[in-house]
Amino acid sequence: AGAETVKRAVELDVASRFQESLVCYQEGIDLLLQVVKATKDEAKKHRYRQKISEWITRELYPDLFLSDGKYHKQIRIEENATGFGYEKLFQEYLTEIVSEVWVEDPYIRHLYNFLRFCEMLVKGPCKVKTIHLLTSYDEGNGKSQQISGLEEIQQSLRNYGVTLDIAFSSSIHDREIRFNNGWMIKIGRGLDYFKKPQGRFSIGYCDFDLRPCHETTVDVFHTKHTKKM
């Protein structure tokens, strides 16, 4: 089973479906490690270990496996950098099997940013059916506008067959986005890492790839782990 899974990973690798191949590599290596532990023949055990090591250290993925076996990729967005629209950060992780998304962010205030994120999910190639949003209430007069805006997004998503589940918490402080295919993205500033455009008719107002960003760090993880040999 492990060999077949890795064979599938190689096929995905060749097809440039790198994130899917990563998951298959992880699952296949995990299965083969179990075989290594159960094998009594030292020659076979040595051969298996060499092959597993080869897969782990593939040139395509030099940074995938850290000392604890966890996948971790970090992206540094510099002050005023452009070219970091939501598609740039998220698209490669939105595989066809993604049907459920969790957004935890205490400061969902710029609702157009959240709306733009939802539009990306609706466009696919994923087939999102449910988006869970956990945030906190805006303070003062902004609360009613926040609620009505989120309800409008909720209704609009319903027209596309997507359910937006909204919950509020006064104690939430972490910012993270999770997909049900195992990928998790943490952005230091949450979804609101874009700077305010100079005006409604300035470049970058509609196209987020052209909008300058605040400095922030993006960390990408996968929930599956590869055991150490």
From TrEMBL:
This is MITD1 protein. It comes from the Eukaryota. Residues 83-222 form the MITD1 C-terminal phospholipase D-like domain. InterPro entries: MIT_dom (IPR007330), MIT_dom_sf (IPR036181), MIT_domain_contain_protein1 (IPR052817), MITD1_C (IPR032341), MITD1_C_sf (IPR038113), MITD1_N (IPR045331). Coiled coil: none annotated. Pfam families: MIT, MIT_C. One of its GO terms (cellular component) is midbody. Residues 2-58 form the MIT domain. GO terms for biological process: midbody abscission.
